[in-house]
Design brief:
Radius of gyration: 21 Å
Helix content: 40-55%
Strand content: 5-15%
Distance between the termini: 44 Å
Order of helices and strands: HHEHHEHHEHEHEHEEHHHHHH
Strand order of the largest sheet: 3-2-1-4-5
Oligomer: single chain
Length: about 375
């Protein structure tokens, strides 16, 4: 069964984000006044995606009165990553945004009418001024902080008494962001610290598509996040293919957890099987609350509905997280053929269930994987 070609493109995900932002009236009124609005610039989402995700998780776990705002112009700028052939990054960012805005918890997309209608004087800075406009709109409602690495945009907002935070060039964390946002009011140890593994993200250089960032251990004598020099730190970007495969593998697990859960939810809804089953004879995943399902649960359920092409390694094994079950491997431990087999299986699964997000995601990931395997590998020392 063929999936309509237009749904392979990430533009469908972006369109759905706009629809949720502009049609969900409840989201606009779901949060009481007095919340802190943290507005994101595109560069924060691109280069500190793990920090944004971690901070969102921490805010929800601690039930803090914080709402992360994504200006609608950010989606246009993310879509522009396709011109740099960074399809995988565009796909992962937009899929996460869609999932979060649908949850209506800690992340909100700026709606069309949530604007001060500030006309840009300089067309070259239209996107920056659109983010400034977004800040001003929410500033009139409650407290606002802008997260951005753009000096000019920060200066523009600071002139109107909107505080800004510019992260270090490389290492950052939810904990350090919390220390800056909530000095002396919230225990920062409750927030996630710096990554202990390599991160794979878009390069700042237009000459490269991806870059591997090594973890930096925290210590008491490290430069404080408020130090102005920290904002200007310019550590050279690295590219370590084997570490990139590990980081890409983790990204793929998180991304396809979201996409396959969306497929499973759609199928369960159509079949009227939303409620957990209490019978001891039911499969373990059917006795779980859906929010606790992992990729293996989704695949086991979908396998009862339609067959798809089974390959080696199986999707269940390839997408195992560390210590989740026997058979777990790092991304670099899988061969190029293993990666290709998994991606082919995902394409067939997406086709069988007429889900363009799965098919398109597999295609985008395939381009990234092929590029990594074309790069000469170096020992990792791990």
């Amino acid at each position: 069964m063929a999936v309509p070609m237009q749904f392979f493109d990430n533009a469908d995900t972006l369109r759905r984000i706009y629809e949720v932002a502009n049609e969900d009236v409840e989201m606009r009124d779901a949060f009481p006044g007095g919340r802190l609005h943290v507005v994101l610039d595109t560069n924060i989402l691109m280069h500190h995606f793990n920090v944004v995700k971690g901070f969102s998780e921490d805010v929800e776990r601690l039930a803090l009165p914080v709402l992360i705002i994504i200006p609608n112009v950010v989606l246009s700028e993310l879509d522009g990553l396709k011109k740099r052939e960074q399809f995988w990054f565009t796909r992962t960012f937009s899929t996460w945004i869609l999932g979060k805005v649908k949850e209506r918890r800690s992340v909100k997309m700026q709606a069309r009418e949530e604007t001060c209608h500030i006309a840009p004087v300089d067309p070259a800075r239209a996107n920056d001024l659109a983010i400034y406009d977004c800040c001003m709109y929410f500033y009139r409602k409650s407290r606002v902080v802008l997260l951005s690495g753009d000096k000019n945009l920060c200066i523009e907002c600071e002139k109107d008494y909107i505080p800004t935070i510019s992260p270090p060039r490389e290492q950052w964390s939810s904990r350090e962001l919390a220390q800056t946002l909530f000095p002396d009011t919230i225990d920062p140890s409750a927030f996630q610290g710096r990554e202990t593994r390599h991160e794979y993200r878009p390069s700042r250089s237009r000459g490269a598509r991806g870059v591997t960032v090594a973890p930096l251990l925290e210590s008491d004598d490290m430069m404080d996040i408020d130090d102005e020099d920290a904002y200007m730190a310019d550590a050279p970007e690295q590219f370590e293919p084997k570490h990139a495969l590990d980081a890409l593998h983790l990204q793929a697990i998180e991304h396809f957890t979201a996409t396959l859960k969306a497929v499973a939810l759609r199928v369960r809804t159509a079949a009227g099987e939303l409620a957990p089953v209490q019978s001891a004879h039911a499969p373990a995943y059917r006795r779980k609350a859906f929010e606790l399902w992992v990729i293996g649960d989704c695949l086991a359920y979908l396998d009862t509905k339609k067959p798809w092409r089974k390959m080696s390694p199986s999707l269940q094994v390839f997408f195992l997280r560390r210590n989740e079950d026997r058979g777990w491997r790092r991304g670099q431990d899988w061969s190029r053929q293993d990666w290709m087999n998994v991606l082919d299986a995902l394409v067939d699964l997406g086709t069988q269930f007429e889900d363009g997000a799965v098919v398109g995601s597999a295609g985008d990931l395939k381009q990234e994987v092929e590029r990594l395997f074309m790069t000469r590998m170096r020992p990792t020392g791990t």
